[in-house]
Amino acid sequence: MRAKHELKEDWSNVEQGKTLSYFDTIPSEEVERLYTIYQKLPTSDKQREVYRKEHPSLDEWLVNIKGLKPLGHVHVKKTATKTIEDFEKSFLDSLDIINKR
What we know:
Layout: H1 4-15, H2 29-40, H3 47-54, H4 56-64, H5 78-100
């Protein structure tokens, strides 16, 4: 819970047309969906790097908000890409099944 003086300062900033800095950390709906999938990928190999490279909006958010290092150049192998696409599809299918219950 934010302290009373912080809330007054926030309201003052809103009145002056300033954005609240802590709202800058909230991802878009699309980035949130991509991040949920990203978190499920194994950390022991390059699948997360490949996924970040394939989704620049997620990568930008991870660098700016989560403090990850920029990728630079990542070689995207078809096998890793296919594995990620399969994982993403099965994950989204699972979510659909859960949401229909």
